[in-house]
Fold this protein.
Amino acid sequence: MCSSDLTLLVLFVAEVYSDVLGDPSPDTLRRRLARAINRRWAVLEPLIPLGIPLLIGGAGLISVDAAVWAALGVAVAFLAIWGGITARQRGRSWPRVAGAALVSALIGVIIIVLKAWH
């Protein structure tokens, strides 16, 4: 598990804990905990698609290097998808949606290149 994954996990636990403590309902702890986990699940969602190639690599089906590159590729693809979705939700034309997706993906690629170069 890399440090960013661990950071997301710690953030998730902290948000769930905060929600449970701040929940004024008379429900049981179990119900409040379930409600908080359900509400904060979005914090962990990015780990699922990125974790699939890493699990495949950890199982030995592909090399570790290939698994890391695949996870980075998935991350860049998701940046492109969300950049396009955001542009479309703002009513942009399809060429501008494509441009937003491309720019979002390029930002991810630049971050990866700079990190690898460092």
In short: The first helix runs from residue 3 to 22. Helices lie at 3-22, 29-40, 47-58, 64-89, 94-117. Residues 50 and 74 are 6 Å apart (CA to CA).
